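Hi there,

I know you've been waiting on this one. I reran it after we fixed the sequence typo, so this is the corrected version. Both the input and the resulting structure follow.
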Amino acid sequence: MPAFASHTPLSDAEFREAAGDVLARIEATIDGWLQDDVIDIDANRTGGMLELSFPGGSKIVVNTQPPLQELWLAARRGGFHFKQVSGEWQDTRNGGVFHTVLSECASEQSGKSLTFTPG
């Protein structure tokens, strides 16, 4: 049974709020790293898309997909789709947790151990 089988659809407003919270938390984490001189990641948000530019030129893109109620993550490692299951964003293929996958991808692309948390 796929990991997203227990996904309960959200209202449009609930999805926008939940997805917006994820993007805002990522931005706040990066702002903290910049202030603490951990790493210089450029975050550029346009609507429901957040592009992270790493030293060396690699990028990670997090994009909201309202019609599917998904968060998409594109990184060097590949593309991932996440749905909210029991209040947690889980990979639709293997059940991986969004913030864990984002942390792993960011760490790989930056060469530093970076951890994103849900809040």
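Quick highlight: The radius of gyration is 14 Å.

Best,
R. S.
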